[in-house]
Amino acid sequence: MASRHDSDPEPGILALLPSGFVDHALFAQAMTHRSGTDEPLASNERLELLGDAVVELVVTDRLFHQFPGATEGRLTKLRAALVSRAVLAERASALGLGQLLIVGQADARSANALSNALEALIGAVYEVHGLDGARWFVEHLLDPLLAELTDDLILGDFKSHLHEVLAHLRRGAPSYDVSWTGPDHARVFQVRLRVEGLPVVEGVGHSRKEAEQAASREALRELAALADELAPEFGVALADEGHGFADGSGSRPTRA
């Protein structure tokens, strides 16, 4: 027999839902695990499928516009981290959804069931309020995590990766020549980076670190273009890391 709790939204949950969410029947369905009903279409699985698609769209759109310089590979990894089962289960638990799940067995209150219930709830919000309401709800849930994302996380540590690549190829360490222009409060840094066997590359940024990262990324592009000559497996490793190349796609560039 299913274990049933009061399936109406708690006051705390209502405060997080878009104003006017009054479809208690849809909320109850979003909280119904497949073990809690004899009717497959009465479970939350269909709403979960819808909510999963909505979460991916909303988070992808947010990351796409928040970080216009991030590569496709980097955005994909960030999205995967933000909408992981662990993250969604934690947010569902914080909302108290575990106490509202309608289940037919005790072990149905797993982290997976919690994340599925939250996705189903997002699907229900989409059904009632459309994409704008669902976007508001998802961003409200994930804003604390989105706020912690920094440019360093998005860009990746190209400088460290370059040193790893050069060590693998048994080449000498790169040298960085740093210069800057402008007043102290608005300096622009330029770095000329030299690597044995490569043309000099340059990077520009509002800090020395940013300029070094930009120059290191350019050096990685040059190494990727030579990957077939240096070590065929190396170009694949660079692409897998999501470090963007000249076309911004993560694909290995070719030399004319």
TrEMBL record:
Residues annotated for Mg(2+) binding in this entry: 48, 116, 119
Residues at the active site: 52, 119
Major site of localization recorded for this protein: cytoplasm
One cellular component term from this protein's GO annotations in UniProt: cytoplasm
Stored InterPro entries: dsRBD_dom, RNase_III, RNase_III_dom, RNase_III_sf
EC numbers for this chain: 3.1.26.3
Enzyme class of the recorded protein, top EC level: hydrolase
Swiss-Prot/TrEMBL GO biological process terms: mRNA processing; regulation of gene expression; rRNA processing; tRNA processing
Compartments in which it is found: Cytoplasm
Example GO molecular function: ribonuclease III activity
Cofactor dependency: Mg(2+)
Catalytic reaction(s) noted: Endonucleolytic cleavage to 5'-phosphomonoester
Domain RNase III stretches: 21-130
Keywords, alphabetical: Cytoplasm, Endonuclease, Hydrolase, Magnesium, Metal-binding, mRNA processing, Nuclease, RNA-binding, rRNA processing, rRNA-binding, tRNA processing
Record domain DRBM: where: 157-225
SMART domains given in the database record: DSRM, RIBOc
Stated family: Belongs to the ribonuclease III family.
HAMAP family: RNase_III
Function text: Digests double-stranded RNA. Involved in the processing of primary rRNA transcript to yield the immediate precursors to the large and small rRNAs (23S and 16S). Processes some mRNAs, and tRNAs when they are encoded in the rRNA operon. Processes pre-crRNA and tracrRNA of type II CRISPR loci if present in the organism.
Subunit: Homodimer.
This protein's name: Ribonuclease 3
Protein's organism: Ferrimicrobium acidiphilum DSM 19497
Gene transcribed to yield this protein: rnc
